[in-house]
Amino acid sequence: MRKNLFFVLTGPSGAGKSTLIKGIKEKFDLAFSVSHTTRAPREGEIEGRDYYFVEESVFEKMLKRGEFIEWTEVYGNKYGTTKKEVERLLRGEKDIVLDLDLRGALRAKTVFKDAIVIFIGTKSFEDLKERLRKRGEKDIEKRISLAKEAIDLIANFDYLVINGELESSLREVESIFVSEHLRTRNINLSKYKEDFFK
Question: pTM to 2 decimals?
Fold first, then answer.
């Protein structure tokens, strides 16, 4: 009766998206998206489980065809999440959740109209700066500048969670997951009616 949902957590670097996703994965049975990458496999990594390993030329062709919801380059290697991979997961039996940068989250909202995007923020710029300092980030000013741009984009997303105290923030994200499954647009109503009148 329920549909599989596509959740995205986005927000400035240092806001705590990865930590919240880790907590959510402990509470809910979620599917994992497998990214494409141009880097070589590391020892123990398996094709299709850890990554889809592709040549640079293949990645570039996929990029030109618009196959990626989002992509990034780290230390000369490219990484990307494809629309096809998300569609494959949505046909399965589990919800999916992705940690995307702002550009990726906006694209996800464009490509997947029903994507539920949660913006993870901090109480203030000072709070964000302190988090970045504690993480040992070197380009703090650049990240703060990007965070200012991010604040202007909040209205494009569905929810705002201010990540102050972790347990409280995690409960808020959990409540979003639960409530989205109760929305009529996310329920197979014809199946519900069919079961009701049996």
Answer: 0.84
